[in-house]
Amino acid sequence: MKKNITANIITLNEEKHIEAVIQSVQSVCDEVLVIDSLSTDRTCEIAESLGAKVIKQAYLGDGMQKAFGAPHAKNEWILSIDADERLDANAIEAIKNLDLDSTPYDAFSFARKTFVGKNFIKLWYPDRVTRLYKKSACGFTTVGGHARVDTQNVKALDADMLHYSYADYGEMIKTSHKFITRGAKIAHAEGKRASKFDPFTHGVGALFKALVLKGGAFHGVNGWNVAIISAFSSYMKYALMLEMQENG
Q1: How far is it, in rounded angstroms, from Cα 96 to Cα 103?
Q2: Inter-residue contact 109 to 91 (CB < 8 Å)
Q3: CATH 3.90.550.10 fits 3-166, yes or no
Q4: Strand partners, 32
Q5: What does the alpha-carbon distance between residue 104 and residue 169 come to, in Å, rounded to a whole number?
Q6: pLDDT tens, position by position, for the chain (248 residues)?
Q7: CA dist list (Å): 32 to 5, 55, 122, 130, 158
Q8: Where are the domains of the chain?
């Protein structure tokens, strides 16, 4: 049974994902909004053919783009989901069982299962994300970087989102470059300073956290792959910050 929930999906050239994510949310949502960042592929065409309402908006940043869709939603409750995410069967069941008219909570969070190709990355689980929220009570932050729903009144559901983040490790390495650069630029713009020791300490710290504290050393080759890429990303973020400082 569908509920009075609007699914909010931000996209940019997501023709390989858009059909699956829309079909996933249509099991519980009676409206689907696609906020598209001027895609040049068939994303919008596919979305509209599946009954989604497409609104085109040049990319404003992760939080601002997700917040942009809220005023266009006909429903009070919004389910924010990325194009490369899906609702697991347990998430669909959990949402169907919610009484959103009388709940004391302003939002609900999901555990997220992330995949690289077909490999489930246990190192990153549960990676809680707040995605179902009441728009009159809260919403996405509009600051730079990766956004979140800004509320403390959130209930953790025993339910999963599936995150098909990367097609393979090659894509993960390629994408990490974008996040390294963006993270360094945001930190630099906010006036944060890096010392000459920061690349080493943060890189080694990230490796220790991934392999030891989170047990990635016991997760096989996938655990080691992700730990090493994460450590490299952390190292290079601070290395870039140092470079920006030196170059003014």
Answers
A1: 13
A2: no
A3: yes
A4: 7
A5: 42
A6: 789 999 999 999 999 999 999 999 999 999 999 999 999 999 999 999 999 999 999 999 889 999 999 999 999 999 999 999 999 999 999 999 999 999 999 999 999 999 999 999 999 999 999 999 999 999 998 765 568 999 999 999 999 999 999 999 999 999 999 889 988 998 888 889 999 999 999 999 999 999 999 999 999 999 999 999 999 999 999 999 999 998 87
A7: 9, 11, 30, 18, 24
A8: 3-166, 169-247
